[in-house]
Amino acid sequence: MTPAALLVVLVGLAMVGYVMGKSRAIATVGGNRGVRNLHSLPSYYGALTALWCAVPALLILGLWVAFQDTILVKLVTAHMPAAVRSLSSNELSLVLNDVRNVVDGNVPLANARPEVRAAAEEYLELRGISRTALTALAIAAALVFMIVARARITPAFRARNAVERIIEFALIGCSLIAVLTTVGIIASVAFEAARFFGKVPWYEFLFGLQWSPQTAIRADQVGSSGSFGAVPLFWGTAMISGIAMLIAVPIGLFSAIYLAEYAHRRFRTWTKPFLEVLAGIPTVVYGFFAALTVGPALRTWGEAIGLSVASESALSAGLVMGIMIVPFVSSLADDMITAVPQSLRDGAYALGATKSETIRQVVVRAALPGIVGGVLLAISRAIGETMIVVMAAGLAANLTANPFEAVTTVTVQIVTLLVGDQEFDSPKTLAAFALGLVLFLVTLGLNILALHIVKKYREQYE
Amino acid sequence: MSNPGERPASTSRTPKETAALVAKTLNRRYWAERRFRFYGLSAVILGIVFVLFLFITIFAKGMSTFQQSYIKLEVFYDPAIIDPNGTRKPEEIANADYLQLVRASMKARFPQVEGRKETRDLTRLVSGGAAFDLRSRVMSTADLIGQRETQWVLASDDVDMLMKGRIQRPTEEQPGPLSMDQVTWIDQLLKEDALELRFNTTFFSHGDSREPEQAGVWGAVMGSLFTLALTLLLSFPIGVAAAIYLEEFAHKNRWTDIIEVNINNLAAVPSIVFGLLGLAVFIGFFGLPRSAPLVGALVLTLLTLPTIIIASRAALKGVPPSIREAALGMGASKIQMVTHHVLPLAMPGMLTGTIIGMARALGETAPLLMIGMVAFIVDVPKSFTDPATVLPVQVFLWSDSPERAFVERTSGAIIVLLGFLIVMNATAVVLRNKFERRW
After folding, report:
1. How many CB atoms lie within 10 A of CB B225?
2. pLDDT for B90-132, tens place per residue?
3. Residues A408/A394, Cβ–Cβ less than 8 Å
4. Considering the domain B218-435 in this protein, what is its CATH number?
5. Interface test with A, best of B276, B283, B383, B390 (most A CBs within 10 A)
6. Does the ipTM exceed 0.95?
7. b/e code B246-284 from CB counts within 10 Å (16+ = b)
8. Could you state, in order of their start, the residue ranges of all structural domains in chain A?
9. Among A342, A376, A462, B409, which is most buried by a count of CB atoms within 10 Å?
10. From the candidate CATH numbers 2.120.10.30, 1.10.3720.10, 2.40.240.10, 3.40.50.620, the one assigned to the domain spanning A227-461
């Protein structure tokens, strides 16, 4: 039975279990009139039986499907002729790919090479055995648990509490997914990064000034060494983020102040959604805008005043990224400013301060920790932004302070290293994970710091 | 300060002196006030100008995508070309050279054109896709062989660009992608009403193509649809369940603190890192197929979960405790209280948060690049495991293409993408306004 068919069967069995549990509960108290003698409503007994029937069997099914392929491939590889097994891992994966194509029916069995054909036949046979075993095991589990659960039903049995405990465990499980995601990110990225640092020393990666990740296809190729000094990338990221913040912080802060303190209510309700539109536009649209409109425009203006601006410059990427971050800064700053108690403003007015003096010397200062936290969050956003820089900043790993030149960033390099065909164990691919690790750690640090500041500040006025 | 009349000599000012000092600086302070206010207003206006500028440039570049140049051809379905052996077998008909039909009917229209190069240039006015269209027409109705018919076929991208005024007419000094001869023929076609702009159905019904005039967004739209449907199916129940646990059941302790900090941090992790996770775990470890909506949906689920959990928790917080107390007081269990009373009241808020999360997922590009959804895929995906691409990735792919006509297509795809986003966000706003309750 295919896993999909098995799933349908199990769902059907669970329904049967529901009916059986419910009727059994009613039968124990002698028909519908005795239902009041049951601890829980009859449907809870049905639900409990159905859950016992379905959950263990589904767990078996899920685990089996997740690991079946990996195990089968291992077995098949182990039985391949020695000549094939001794191939390099790349060539071996090509052979396995052929096998997979035959198995999936993309290539007819008769057309395949003999070793591929043998492997495919073995794979299909093993898969057949595995499926039979899975079907038997899952259905047996479903039936056994269903019968046991049904047998335990007595009028005093607390079915509702049991069902609710299962639901609560399910809820806990769902909330753990967030933790598992973090663990998954750290584990996967750190694992691959560790492999990278096994090939390239970490100090060379963190402090090296030369980035050219091309590794050779042949050993005798020119420039085959490949150097992985990431400082130019860190510098490019910092420069573009810096330009973005130079745009985003003043505009975001001033518009938040104006909308929160000065603007007429009607003006506010009309303009705020307008600014929030900027936050909803996909970054790939900003990237297109930066690459096709802003970049060439800057180039033309630069030529007009005698500056040479690269068509993919740090400036155009930074400018557009700044626009993207404006609503982020302004909405956070707005939260912080409106959280400042009115009494502080009234106090300042009573001392004769003008509105702008009150804002500058009282409101902004009182809100400063929150604003700083918001700006830190915005910086972490700018560092992790990908599409704008991929499309507008270029690939040249220049170590330059000139914003009119092309630079490259951590995220751009991750994308260029991983998009397209790749071998999984070349330093080139692994370098992307090392960069990812750095990116994750830096943004995580900034976030924790920022959230801590914001939280502390919020509590201050609550 | 026992005696208010006595002050330290150095800072002592009579009220009069203070008033004079204030009066002297007042003008300056009022100016500063106006200046400050002006800065604020200009920041707001600058923001609005950005929005308008962005939308106007995209629309100005992209609106013409929805029209496409078509050329009227008098096609003669010549049996000698389509079916030289007279067998009428489908496989022979399928392999015939349909470009020759196009060439023949173009030559019939312009009998003065001679020579190989000229004929080739003439045929190039028509898109390569025209041959495919003629083929599928013959394949569906075999009776056409030997008949004559008037067909509107796709013009090539260069003709299209000239029609839309995106490229200049070539001159002797400035040759363009079209030759002088070709422009003369185009003028003649225009004069005979055999070349016109019509609604671009190809754009909305085809997958990707290397030829701009044959490229469409339908494949990407379907890919986005498959990916988002699965994302919604996974992330909404999980997100709501997690929010219910954290808000209604969890005791405040170190463990739940960790979960909470975790969720807040995940919401701010760069999306590309989620792509790395997807590549290493779903593709590398579990061996799921590359480029499939299935993997895209798994990655986007993890990406949108924090947003949905945070919004759902806020919605649960908005339900007043009195409802809970009343339910518990009537003998409901905690689960009954949540499912019968709290959840229905919090549902609109949760749905709003989910729609906003989905809108974010729809616009997400970077993590999908990592899991291989950038492949060039012509076919429209039909299932969760078919190779597919999504709308924002299609925008990225087209924006990289050198052809002039792809700039227009890219903007057109962006307009489609923005259209979806506007609909989603408008739904969220309507939902919020309609069901929002003040207690």
Report:
1. 17
2. 777 778 888 888 888 888 888 888 888 888 888 888 888 888 8
3. yes
4. 1.10.3720.10
5. B276
6. no
7. bbbbbeeeeeeeebbbbbbbbbbbbbbbbbbbbbbbbbe
8. 3-157, 227-461
9. B409
10. 1.10.3720.10
